[in-house]
Structure formats: structure tokens, C-alpha cells
Amino acid sequence: MPSATPELISPRSPRVSAARRLARRNFRSKERLFLAEGPQAVREAAGHRDTLVELFTTVEAAERHADIVGEARAAGARVHLASEQVVADISTTVTPQGLVGICRFLDAPFARILAARPRLVAVLAHVRDPGNAGTVLRCADAAGAEAVVLTDASVDLYNPKAVRASVGSLFHLPVAVGVPVQEAVAGLKGVGVRILAADGAGTDDLDDELDQGTMGGPTAWVFGNEAWGLPEETRALADAVVRVPIHGKAESLNLATAAAVCLYASARAQRASGGCRSVTTS
User: How far apart are CA 92 and CA 186, in angstroms?
Assistant: First the structure.
């Protein structure tokens, strides 16, 4: 059982100051560390080998989530019992949940992703909103994608808002970061992956692609900025530019919703008869 007396009570202590600085991208990049907040993210980090470095927890959170704190200690993380003020000072949320972890960067080399010959990949090109990036990562994970690629024109994967929006999926699948979009497309094509650019003004209709049976093979979806979509030079790299049909009166779909529709369409096609995954493949 944890002690009722926090060991860290001053927001000015060196450990707290070092953790707080990780809210800023330049410090994250320098230290190759990022913040994971809340029980779900901390649990996932503790279960991911050699990832969780430190855990700051309030007395109340340590008692309520004793199993997570135990997993953190078992993973080799230094656990700091801290005052609510200290945890709030480190946290980037309005209502902290009492647990904040410091984690090592997780990004995977793009070459490793290609070597695994993925069958479903999400490529985030020009995605600037961290909440969108994290949510698309979560959608890719749920749809069974083997990898996510963030281009050099996209948001920082380790932005606290992106980490929260991924709801733990950041720890589930390999993510390559900082890959130029031309390199990402060329590499994926080189291992037999078809490139589909998702764009509301696309010339091809997602329903038609499904009806024609063209989506059963290895596929990478390229998603762009929600405000202005994909630039023409990026669309030109794709094998097809596909729009999600709007059957009702909605003006459009937001990025994360469109990504979920596209990724699940591919996942279903790949698991159908003749697809690149059998129905028994996980």
C-alpha cells in the first residue's frame, strides 16, 4: 500500500521541472521522452517493453489504480508519489486523472515497416491537428492496420493531445515519423502496396471500389489536412484518389470519420474471399 505522505510536494523540484518541460516539442525531441496521462495510457505504457521510465501519481490515484502502479514498478519505472498540485502541474489536461507517465519514444524505422510487408497502412500526410492524428491512429489500430506513417509535414506524434486521442493505440502498432510523403509512397509501392488517397473531391467512389473488388490487396490510405485536403502533388502519387460517398445532406465528413470508413472498408475487403487476409488471420 502506498504511503499517505507524498514524497514530491513542490512543483519546483528538479524531477517535476524536467517532466513539465516535456509538454514542449523541443524538449521531447531532445530527450526522446514524452508524457502519457491517465490510467489507460499508463497501463499500456507499462505493458510495452522498456517504454515507461517514470510514473508520477497522487496518493488517491495510487490507491485506486494499485494494479497499474504495480505494473509500472514491475516494468522498472521509477514511481513518484506526488501531491495533487505536482501532478496537476505536470499534466496538460484541464482535469488531471492523477497518473502521468514519462515514456521513451516509440517510433519505428520506416525500413522495418516495409520489411514486414504490411497489408494495411495509414499514411498521415499534412495532418496538423494532434487530436486528428491520434484519432486516426486509433482508427488504424481498431481496423487491424499493421502500421501508421506520419510524414515530415504532419504534427508531432508525441504531442500530449495526440497521445491522449490515440487512447493507448500508440503503444499497439509501429509508427514511422518524419518520412517525406514521396519516400513513403515509393517505399510502400516497392513492397506491393496499392496507394489510395482519401479526398472528398476524388474521382473514384469508395462504394465503386468495393463493388469492383479492387480493395482486397495490400493497401495504404493517404489522409490529408482536414481543412484543405491533400495537395495535388500528393494526390498525383496515388494509384487512385477515392472519395467517401455522401448519401445524405451532410457537407462532408471530418478526417477521423472518413479515415475510419476507409480503413474498415479495406479491412473488410481484405478478409473477404480472395482478399490478402484469410478470415482466420488476426
Answer: 37
